[in-house]
Amino acid sequence: MLARCPGSAETNVEQDINNLKVKWDSVQTKLSERKAKLEEALNLAMEFHNSLQDFINWLTQAEQTLNVASRPSLILDTVLFQIDEHKVCEETDV
């Protein structure tokens, strides 16, 4: 194709081809960077989702525990036992 072009046109075609190569390389670089960022975002989103699911499970269990808990007693030994049970519930990590 370049052989059929006059001298100045050949130079213009070569410049155009070089410009296209530079733009193509730029597009490929940007695509690679975007892919890396999307993969990182996916990992963060999955980690957040898993943490959220763990929290929801803990919260559900805590609600169930509190729903079946007996009313506070007026008997000292029972109250002390209930306080200990409550402390165990509070200390459970999410």
From TrEMBL:
Matching Gene3D superfamilies: 1.20.58.60
Range of residues in the leader sequence: none
Organism domain of life: Eukaryota
Gene Ontology BP term (one): hemidesmosome assembly
GO cellular component: cytoplasm; focal adhesion; hemidesmosome; intermediate filament; membrane
Native source organism of the sequence: Platysternon megacephalum
Protein name (database record): Acyl-CoA thioesterase II
One GO MF term attached to the UniProt entry: microtubule binding
